Amino acid sequence: MAIILKINKFPIEFEEALPILRKIEKAGFEAYFVGGSVRDTILGREIHDVDIATSAYPEEVKQIFNRTVDTGIQHGTVMVLDHGNGYEVTTFRTESTYQDYRRPDEVTFVRSLEEDLKRRDFTINALALSEDGTITDLFSGLDDMKNHLIRAVGIADERFNEDALRMMRAIRFSSQLDFDIESETEGAIYRHSHLLEKIAIERIHEEFVKMMKGTRPNLGLTKMIETQLSEHVPGFKGQQVILKHLSELNLQKMDEIKIWSLFAFGFKYNKPSTTKFMRNWKSSNQLTDEVVKTTFLLNQVQNNQVGNIELYAAGKIAVVAADHLSQIFDLAIQPGELTIEYDHLQIKTKRDLAISAKELIADEILTPGPQLGQVLNRLETLVINNELTNNYDELLMAAKSIKNEGSN
Ligand SMILES: Nc1ccn([C@@H]2O[C@H](COP(=O)(O)OP(=O)(O)OP(=O)(O)O)[C@@H](O)[C@H]2O)c(=O)n1
């Protein structure tokens, strides 16, 4: 069994950060790379943020470096600025500080790496990498990596009690890495699933989307149902049958709009219920708007009600999303059909009309007032439906006759 105990070549992100580790060590403290970047390096995945853990207390870190920012000093985190990069350097600590309702003063700083690794969530996230490439693996994280397992550090119930979001993180990692959840850990998620309701929805949202964008979203969704976590997130309660059905669809390559529309359409939501669902997940207005449009368009596809007006109202983003989802839900349209039809529309917004309000006034066809708006709306509809060509002269003539119709 080949266990890597030493890394021979650091990825560039670590190379660049090595002087930071060395400087801390030179001052007489310990310092390691920790967390996701170590995990992802060993797995050969791209790394994001380089996190450093140290035995130096925050005030000591600040003395070692010239340029630091107190990004989270009460949690023990100081940002060290170096050649345009910022590194989070965090003092070893025992308490989990992840729950928003915890007061920062509950954090206990310690000098021991072991104490720090012990309070981390999963064995694969509890590895420390030192400056010479040695990996400290106190909880068989490397074995678990080899066996593709997400396993809580120590007693799973304790880890989830410290921070219930970790249950969603387990499922997210399972989907991202295509790992299974070790059975003790999975059992603890099942027993503690209700604790998820204590967690800020924004944090759950983030993990949920990462899970759905992972390599195995189907696995993630199935695990959410099996562990009952799905019973404790907005809109999913009591929907196991539908969720199970959704978990069997092809969920690859979905962006956020498609992800949320998948559920809204799956739950047979109309416009107001989709909006409510999105609000409950604390989604941005922009995302909510696109999801509402996509879901509505999918309903129209299902009911065979899609014409140019519907495509125009939905807009390109929703049209593309609905095209993809129509295939996933096996609705009776061809791949890309909506997008092709949308692209053929003569205008995509009112601004594309070949005549403007200003020009109608300048040509003395109309004067400012409600009738002007009505005529423009009418022209817009006629052009969308290809009953008129979007050309200045044709629109001018049409505007005249619409006006005359109105005054007769
Ligand atoms: N609820 C949490 C969140 C984080 N951690 C620890 O803090 C590290 C960094 O956390 P974070 O940056 O949130 O996640 P990563 O594991 O780095 O994963 P990713 O970058 O993919 O989000 C984790 O690896 C883990 O050791 C934890 O124990 N419990």
From TrEMBL:
This is CCA-adding enzyme. Homodimer. Its EC number is 2.7.7.72. Catalyzes the addition and repair of the essential 3'-terminal CCA sequence in tRNAs without using a nucleic acid template. Adds these three nucleotides in the order of C, C, and A to the tRNA nucleotide-73, using CTP and ATP as substrates and producing inorganic pyrophosphate. tRNA 3'-terminal CCA addition is required both for tRNA processing and repair. Also involved in tRNA surveillance by mediating tandem CCA addition to generate a CCACCA at the 3' terminus of unstable tRNAs. While stable tRNAs receive only 3'-terminal CCA, unstable tRNAs are marked with CCACCA and rapidly degraded. It is an enzyme of class 2 (transferase). PANTHER family: CCA TRNA NUCLEOTIDYLTRANSFERASE 1, MITOCHONDRIAL. A single active site specifically recognizes both ATP and CTP and is responsible for their addition. Residues 31-151 form the Poly A polymerase head domain. Belongs to the tRNA nucleotidyltransferase/poly(A) polymerase family. Bacterial CCA-adding enzyme type 3 subfamily. The keyword Transcription does not apply. Residues 255-397 form the CCA-adding enzyme C-terminal domain. It catalyses: a tRNA with a 3' CCA end + 2 CTP + ATP = a tRNA with a 3' CCACCA end + 3 diphosphate; a tRNA precursor + 2 CTP + ATP = a tRNA with a 3' CCA end + 3 diphosphate. Keywords: ATP-binding, Magnesium, Metal-binding, Nucleotide-binding, Nucleotidyltransferase, RNA repair, RNA-binding, Transferase, tRNA processing. One of its GO terms (biological process) is tRNA 3'-terminal CCA addition. Its cofactor is Mg(2+). It holds the Pfam family tRNA_NucTran2_2. GO terms for molecular function: ATP binding; CCA tRNA nucleotidyltransferase activity; CCACCA tRNA nucleotidyltransferase activity; magnesium ion binding; tRNA binding. CTP binds at G36, R39, R120, D163, R166, R169, R172. Residues 178-236 form the tRNA nucleotidyltransferase/poly(A) polymerase RNA and SrmB- binding domain. ATP binds at G36, R39, R120, D163, R166, R169, R172. The keyword RNA-binding applies. Mg(2+) binds at D49, D51. The gene is cca. It comes from Lentilactobacillus kosonis. HAMAP family: CCA_bact_type3.
